[in-house]
């Protein structure tokens, strides 16, 4: 169709209704609507700002009201091709869109459904304007998911990619928060999260950060790694922790030994004494036994559930091994 004819019919209402078609459960229909929307955007140059505003409205609704939208991956695919065509330096409109829309999209409950596409768009923005990476690092640490291992793995992957973008001397304000988060991941109960966090130490840029800011990083990381390397419950990860301990010692032997003398380390609570953990577990088991005795008085037919962390059964919160309670001899 001729562009002049199309302009008469492609109104704000039409664009909004077209976007609503993305919110359905049929992937083939969403893919078709994506191609249609992309062609209209490419053909109607004068309407492009209206198209972007409509997408922005959908994102804002998702962030503040709906929390779920089936067509997010497709919409972000469209945006990825749009962002690729942005001129450098970015206009203020595009910077505001990144800060006020793209960053908050990370904290949406259903972000794991579209995180791959969101990360791709974010990195395209950072390739146009690397300074925005500091805002994204701050947001990732601020919106870190709680009790959601899938999203934590995604955040770790994105964080590892994003920290390579800014200049080393500009990342200092975030170093302490970054290392505290990584230590929590490594010391946590989830094996995959701990393993993914260990991948940071294979990154040359990250090791450079570790060396440059060792006055901040060593007191945080050395005492914890030194302790959990001896009693971690997983053999393979324990070997990695022992190797990491050796790397940290080789980087600066004096700073390493000095860090071990610190008693008031913010992250030291993450590593517990093996005997103390066993004693805590005994107390918890005794409480469970007492509760079942009381329940038996109310209902004699009640069946006792399998207690966690016994010799024959090892389970944890969210079906994960709890490294702060399980003792492996």
TrEMBL record:
Domain of life: Eukaryota
One GO CC term on file: protein phosphatase type 2A complex
Gene Ontology BP, a term: signal transduction
GO terms for MF: protein phosphatase regulator activity
Pfam family, one: B56
Gene3D superfamilies in alphabetical order: Leucine-rich Repeat Variant (1.25.10.10)
Name of the molecule in the record: Protein phosphatase 2A regulatory B subunit, B56 family protein
């Amino acid at each position: 169709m001729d562009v002049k004819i199309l302009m008469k019919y492609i109104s704000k209402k039409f664009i909004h209704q077209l976007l609503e078609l993305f919110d359905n459960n049929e992937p083939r229909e969403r893919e078709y609507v994506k191609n249609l929307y992309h062609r209209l955007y490419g053909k109607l140059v004068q309407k492009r700002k209206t198209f972007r505003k409509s997408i922005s409205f959908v994102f804002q609704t998702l962030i503040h009201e709906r929390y779920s939208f089936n067509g997010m991956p497709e919409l972000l695919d469209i945006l990825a091709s749009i962002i690729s065509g942005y001129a450098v330096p970015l206009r203020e409109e595009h910077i505001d869109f990144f800060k006020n829309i793209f960053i908050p999209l990370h904290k949406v409950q259903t972000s794991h459904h579209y995180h791959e596409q969101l990360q791709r768009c974010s990195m395209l923005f950072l390739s146009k304007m690397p300074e925005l990476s500091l805002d994204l690092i701050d947001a990732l640490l601020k919106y870190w998911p709680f009790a959601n291992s899938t999203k934590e793995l995604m955040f770790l992957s994105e964080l590892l990619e994003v920290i390579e973008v800014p200049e080393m001397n500009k990342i200092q304000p975030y170093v302490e928060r970054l290392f505290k988060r990584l230590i929590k991941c490594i010391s946590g109960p989830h094996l995959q999260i701990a393993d993914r966090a260990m991948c940071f130490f294979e990154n040359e840029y990250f090791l450079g950060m570790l060396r440059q800011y060792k006055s901040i990083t060593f007191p945080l990381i050395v005492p914890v790694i030194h302790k959990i390397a001896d009693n971690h419950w997983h053999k393979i990860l324990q070997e990695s922790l022992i190797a990491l301990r050796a790397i940290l010692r080789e980087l600066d032997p004096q700073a390493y030994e000095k860090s071990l003398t610190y008693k008031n380390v913010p992250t030291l609570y993450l590593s517990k004494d093996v005997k103390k953990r066993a004693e805590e577990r005994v107390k918890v088991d005794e409480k469970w036994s007492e509760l079942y005795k009381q329940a038996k008085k109310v209902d004699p037919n009640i069946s006792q559930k399998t207690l966690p962390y016994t010799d024959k059964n090892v389970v944890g919160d969210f079906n994960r091994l709890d490294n702060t309670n399980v003792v492996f001899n």
